[in-house]
Design brief:
The complex is a heterodimer of chains A (451) and B (296). By secondary structure, chain A is of the alpha+beta class. Chain A folds into two domains: 43-157 and 322-375, D-Maltodextrin-Binding Protein, domain 2, CATH 3.40.190.10; 160-319 and 392-448, Periplasmic binding protein-like II (D-Maltodextrin-Binding Protein, domain 2, 3-Layer(aba) Sandwich). Chain A has helices at 2-30, 58-72, 88-97, 111-118, 131-134, 165-170, 182-194, 208-216, 225-233, 241-255, 268-276, 287-298, 336-346, 349-359, 376-385, 399-414, 420-437, 439-448, and strands spanning 43-49, 76-82, 104-108, 122-123, 144-145, 148-149, 152-153, 157-158, 161-164, 282-284, 302-305, 321-322, 325-330. In chain A, strands 3, 4, 7 and 13 form a four-stranded antiparallel sheet that branches. A three-stranded antiparallel sheet of chain A has the order 10-9-11. The longest helix of chain A has 29 residues, at 2-30. Chain A is globular. Chain A starts with a helix and ends with a helix. Helices cover 72% and strands 1% of the residues of chain B. Chain B has a two-stranded antiparallel ribbon with strand order 1-2. In chain B, strand 1 (45-46) and strand 2 (53-54) form a beta hairpin. In chain B, helix 5 crosses helix 12 and helix 12 (214-230) packs antiparallel against helix 15 (265-295). Classes of the chains: A alpha+beta (451), B mainly alpha (296). At the A-B interface, helix 3, helix 16, helix 17 and helix 18 of A face helix 14 of B.
Chain lengths: 451, 296
Amino acid sequence: MIFSSFKRASLTAVLSASVLIVLAACGSNSSPTAQKTVDPYTGKLVYWFWAESDVPGSTAWMQAAIKRYEALHPAISIQLVPQGSDTLQGAFETTAQSKSGPDIAMQWATLPVLTPVWRGQVASLKGLVSSTEMANWLNTSENVSNGEVWAMPLYLLGQPFVWNKALFQQAGLDPNKGPSTWAEFLADCAKLKAAGITPITMGDKDGFFGSWFQGTVGTQNLNSVKDLQDLYAGTAKFTDPKYSGYLTLLAELKNKGYINSDVSSIDLTQGWQTFAQGKGAMTWTTDGNVASWIKAGMGSKLGVQSVPKVGTGTLSTFYTATQSISAFVTSWSTQKEAAGAFLTWIHQPENLTSWYNATKAFPADKRFDSKLITDPIMKQLYALDTLPNQLWAENYAPPQVDSQGLQVAGQAILSGSSTPTQAAAAVQRVIDQWRTQQPADWKNYKTWAGL
Amino acid sequence: MLLNSKLSSRRRPERWPYLFIVPMLVTLALIFFYPLVTVIRDSFYGGSVGGLSYVGTANYVSLFHDPIFIHAFVNNLKLLLTVPVTTVIALAAALILFENIRGWRIYRVILFLPYIIPATVVGLSFSYLLQGNGILNTMLRKLGLNFAVFDWIGSTSISIYSIGAVIIWAQLGFGVVVLTASLLSLPNEVSEAAVVDGATRWQKHRYVIIPQIRETIQFLMVLEAITALAWVFPYVYTLTKGGPANSSMVMDLYIWQYGFGLGAIGLAAAAAVYLLLLSSILIFIYSRLRRKQTSS
């Protein structure tokens, strides 16, 4: 009996001690004074990077920048993983489903960023980057939802309309004057074609040209961003000629033979390469590509401007520009502070200068010294990119509508398989499908748009 | 009592051998049954990851009314045409190699090479070859064969057939090797007897050799059919990305695009179930044919 009492007492003592130890451990974790201070310069970050298609040379610059950062902070390492254009959204969506992958990722501004935000895949920059730092960034409004900034701009991107002065001269056109109206544009195309020159060279195998044409030409009968938001929120129809009239213009260019015959079998980058080889007289491109063409010695042959005016809406006076790609911290990252510190460092003035010198793409930061821009064409592009009235319409399209609607419509017209009416109906069907298949995204879109 | 216990131990089935197959069953359950059950379950949900909601059979109904999915389904059926074409060409090549022509081993290696090249490399290479102003069309124009110049991967009407041709090129070698191996395993006496009886080369192949390798041909055709249904993603993605304008969309690309590209997990899962059913029908038909032949 004494022995069983001793056993009972011992067991009670052991159990009590265990409970006390557990409570002490829990208590120490919740005690504010015992919280671990996070060192933002320690750890390993994975950064999924995209910019090369916009800005040739950007990947090499970022790799060098990371090396400099790691030299400054030896306890941190950053792995840069370049992403492809056609897998940018898909790869992120795939990794987001497993809530693992990069600490920092990139998506194109507005809807491609905000859709992951609404799905809980992005961490707010509030608390990770100071508000005084963010105040220096340009175009942050493109990634605002619920009053918070969710992604960091890296550079400004415009979509200039570019022509080859030598080919213009060859066709008897004024090499220093690009078409300012649609009628002039068609007349120039006719003259170039008569001279045996391909008027427009683009690539549309990947579908981006269709979205770009919608963004630069298709929005010219709209009056504000709200018109675009009404379309996707469901209070307007794409079949309204105000929205879909551009498909008729695209069909006209195609049917008159003004666009390169292989447009449907080469992608956007290959189309630009064809332009750079002098095989086409006009193209839509990005600042970064213009910069690389200037670097390759084509500067004297290039003319740049905004797209010829065809519409009568307020947006016809807007230039197509954006911050393009935006970097954000993923919600599952265990190194959020480190990611925020790195993004802050990227925007320091010495890095802005280094970025511009290496790539000639304009940093999206007020602290960038524009006196560094010496080339007259690049000065012209910077002036366009910093215009107060600018819009990149594609950013407002939900990713599903962009890829399955706008891009497919462009491909259907350029391949000759659909009429503009049929293509417009197909886009509206995709918009309706998106609202049905992604009701949460649609609801968030309406809330964000104030509808 | 001892005798009774001995008798009962003989009647009691041995259970411990089953323990040896438990690891295999667990692996099978993890890599086959669990994903299968998850896909079927997900097919009844809508929305994206993080916001899934039960929608019943709405995804299945939606696919019936989705012209892109219907078109993808039809394209997969069109790609089934590659099966008889690949089989006939592979059989012809195997029969020629079986004649022990000089250097037949080298020819067999050359024919097999495309099969071991990764599909993405094949697709990327052919995407340059088949562009509107690509190598093929440039050569055709130089030879004055302008009538044969087409936008092989940029035309909505022929892009799927161009993909089919690339698949035939890539898969042919596998068929040749399988059929050649089957031919080499045949006893010579039967063929020799046919020759002695006066059979021509064509008659020997048609009535003696081919019937003996019929099961191999059927097996090859089923494998090729499954490839055409569910393993063409790398070719389509690298050549056309399902374009232009979804004209070369196929079911596995559709599933990837909606499931991984756009996050519509439920819709993609429903499409995957349809694909599974289609493949199952083919396998069922094959099993019935085999059973008929075995019983006859």
